Amino acid sequence: MIALALSDAPSGLVLGLLGAYASVGVVGAVIATRRSLGLATALGALVCWPLLLPLLGTRHVSTGGPLAPRIAAAVEALCTTLDDPAATSMEGPEDLDGLIAALYRADERLAMVDRLIASVELPEHAPSGLAQSLSELHRARSTTAAELEAVLEGLAQLRIQIGLRSLVGHGVPVRERLRDLRARLAAVDELAALDLRNDA
Amino acid sequence: MTPFTVSSLTSTVLRSPSALVDHPDPRHALATFGPRLLAIGLCGMALFGLVVGSYRGGVQNLYAALKLPLLLLVPVVVGLPAVRALHAACDVEAPHARLALAAVVGMARTGVLAAACGPVLWLLYSIGIDYHLAILCMAGALALVGMPGLATVVRSLPAGGRHRGVASLLSLVLLGSIGAQTGWLLRPFIARPRAEVSFIRPIESDVFSSLSTAFASARGRYDGWDAQAEGFLARERDQEAQP
Q1: Which of A137, A149, B14, B24 could form a disulfide with A69 if both were Cys (CB 3.0 to 4.6 A apart)?
Q2: B26 contacts A5? CB cut-off 8 A
Q3: pLDDT tens column, B145-191
């Protein structure tokens, strides 16, 4: 009956539009799968891709970490400042995208470690090696969390520098500051590793 | 607050949708809850469709259950970019992720309320009310359950801007028009008890010319747009049957 109904419709245009919609849906589903957004999101994108477009953009989407809301708030505030027509335009948005993605990735690693720590139960007479490993994991987690906090504070300072740059001019090194933050975040893993080596 | 189960998500959608819409990271919320909210909304409308189809019964139950979710989905999918553009033109910059999240929450809310309306409508249909009254009851129920969903979307828009009221009014008119035309294209939802059952009718004019004709008919003028007989290709069949 459906086929019969469609056969009576202006087939060329209707089928073309439906095909185009479905094709974009397939592309959306593939992107969602590649970004590890989950099967449900991929299926949703197949049918309702216009609603899920924000997830298929360039920015990294957090799957949930302890600092995710704070990261989102800091990023949103920074983007609002950057989008302000009165703010001096800043070059290198790819630096900002990279920083945001790195922040969320580090946050997801924290979430993974939190889940791991929560799942490990130390018996009363646990071997000292296990207890020590767990303690090292706790310390590495603290180091990473502290670095993330510092980068978030750096983002807040960056907003102020953007304001300063709009008033004072290009002497304020906003782009360099952004790169510093990204480099600092990239060094989080190395710092944690160094910390572990020193303890060992 | 982070509701994870479908039941707690449903409860949040009904009691405090703003807890979801005002999430500090709308993209994260959309990624986490979006698919489940969509499923809740579409399943709710499918249940409502089952009830609507029960007026005729048989395969119309299935047809209506398949079409009612589309009636919820199509206006949002087609109209949301225009709603955003209308508000942007009035200096109300609504982030896409937030608007999409609000739309999905609104759809879920409408779907849940529609499912909740189902038993009442079923009761009405089971006492054998008139066909036209059955249509009016369905339309009234849809309008009733659509309002809270629409309110969720409107409330999600940021404050400020110039002529914000005009943009909101135009958005309502736009979504309403798309919804009405979608309903027109997807009809019949309620088939006449003795009519031929069909999935969709052939495309005939549009909802506005139909309303205009109905208005003229109500004033005693029975000319203008001529509706085809009930059922798919029923007119041709009738013509063939005539000597």
Answers
A1: B24
A2: no
A3: 998 988 888 888 777 777 788 888 888 888 888 888 888 888 888 87
Structure tokens at B127: 């006492």
Category of A38 on φ-ψ map: left (φ > 0), alpha (ψ -120 to 50) or beta: left
Q: Looking at the complex, does the CB of residue B97 fall below 8 Å from at least one CB of chain A? A: yes
DSSP A102-168: HHHHHHHHHHHHHHHHHH----TT--HHHHHHHHHHHHHHHHHHHHHHHHHHHHHHHHHHHHHHHHH
Distance from CA of B134 to the nearest CA of A (A): 25
The residue of chain B nearest to residue A4, with distances taken between CA atoms, is B232
Is A68's CB within 8 Å of B39's CB? no
Find, among B68, B49, B41, the residue nearest to B153 by Cα.
B41
Mean pLDDT (chain A, rounded)? 76
Q: Closest approach of chain B CAs to the CA of A55, in angstroms? A: 6
Cis amide leading into B188 (omega within 30) = yes
Q: Which residues contact A146 (CB under 8 A, 6 or more apart)?
A: none
Q: Does B27 touch chain A (CB under 8 A)?
A: yes
Those residues with Cβ within 8 angstroms of residue B228's Cβ, 6 or more apart along the chain or in another chain: B201, B202, B204, B234, B235
User: Would you call A161 an interface residue with chain B, using a CB distance cutoff of 8 Å?
Assistant: no
Cα within 13 Å of Cα(A32), Cβ side: 29
Q: What is the ipTM of this complex?
A: 0.71
Rounded to two decimals, the pTM is 0.64
CA distance A116 to chain B (A): 20
